[in-house]
Design brief:
2 copies of one chain form a homodimer. Chain A is mostly helical and 207 residues long. Chain A has 9 helices and no strands. Chain A is elongated. Chain B binds a DNA duplex (30 and 30 nucleotides) through helix 1 and helix 3.
DNA sequence: GAGAATATGAAGAGGATACTCACATTCATT
DNA sequence: AATGAATGTGAGTATCCTCTTCATATTCTC
């Protein structure tokens, strides 16, 4: 990656300049992700986020003009993370099984801290204004990566997109479910998930 | 369906006796499922449910002592439905592919009306008091059915439970996702889901 | 030490919530 | 047709949270 440009800065009321304020903003976003994942969009209130961040509510509004701007910041951070994971797993050509293993490892990593954040972000949290576009674009790129993998391991040209959709939602389903039951670390679960992916992509031809 | 015995009646303030009130209660439960699925536990308010049911808020409290009793009624109805679907699909011995097809068809049917009800019921909605037990018991029986199917098509004795877990959550994930995008009826999606199940259960033996 | 950056939290203004109750309507039964 | 039970109504209560602001206090940079 070329020199990290401070991201387009998501709608902010004021740019943090000192190290102290940068840490504050970071804490707020992190706490926001936590609250969002734990309580859902329902329980996501600015007061709770501030408290969870160990910060005054005033500080929150010092940097985020409103609730939505905060959600957008959280969304952006999470999406970036997830995309990088898939990109890495599907980079280079590698044996199917290895791809599956890396994908599972990466996805579990991306969800183990905030188990349901992904779901909430996609399904519950509203995305008014410009975020609608970013949202769709994330979904598209997300699926693209899966589709690329499918195309690579499956010679059939048809149904690639559908397969990508099925695969991604299956993986998400398993991980989400495991997270809810604190089973994300169970190695046999990881193994079985790898198995599921491999089986589907290698395609058993039994009737 | 054999003669439906009026279920043990979930905690109710008053038993509906006339046809009119039975219809009212039914409308309330149905509307409740709708609201719960559409707005999540967050947006689930008794006032909204009453309005959606086309009934006065007073009528709701005529039969349900409080919000939780209503959720329990909704939960009970949905769980019964889902269980019967799995039971039917995994009844008798049948070829793997046929089992998969029937399972997919049934699960899609059970989720097409209230796409996310299942998730909300399991993850978000609280279950104080005695419902905790019913909740766990449902989960257990739910998994049992999957496990039975896994055991039937897979000779390996090990990991049956994990496989059941993986399978069920994968299926749920795909269906939930498809529902959110109004793709539940897409035949190629159904086909691919059947494929996924079959592939996993018939087990590709590549390392 | 001056001025900017950062942090605070009580308070305002508004809305939503679960639930009650006194009353109106409709039913089943005679 | 009449009577009492069953059913239905919805304005109203009290409570709790919400998002956000602002005047003030602290901490940093230079």
């Amino acid at each position: 990656m070329s020199t990290r440009i401070a991201k387009p800065a998501a709608r902010m009321r004021k740019q943090p300049r000192q190290a102290r304020s940068i840490a504050t903003v970071e804490a707020i976003i992190e706490a926001g992700a936590h609250v969002l994942s734990e309580l859902g969009w329902a329980g996501f209130s600015t007061n709770k986020v501030a408290e969870a961040a160990g910060v005054s509510i005033g500080s929150l509004y010092q940097y985020f003009p409103d609730k939505l701007a905060l959600v957008e910041a959280i969304r952006r951070r999470h999406f970036d993370h997830v995309l990088s994971v898939i990109r890495e797993a599907s980079a280079e050509e590698k044996p199917l099984r290895q791809f599956a293993r890396e994908l599972v490892r990466g996805m579990i990593g991306a969800h183990s801290i905030h188990p349901t954040l992904h779901q909430v972000l996609l399904d519950e949290a509203p995305g008014d204004r410009g975020s609608r576009a970013a949202h769709a674009s994330f979904q598209a790129r997300y699926l693209e990566h899966y589709a690329a993998a499918v195309a690579q391991y499956r010679n059939r040209r048809k149904d690639t997109e559908t397969m990508a959709r099925v695969l991604s939602s299956a993986v998400e389903g398993v991980i989400h479910n495991a997270a809810r039951r604190n089973m994300l670390d169970a190695p046999e679960l990881q193994k079985q998930l790898v198995e599921l992916i491999s089986a589907y992509l290698s395609g058993s031809r039994a009737t």
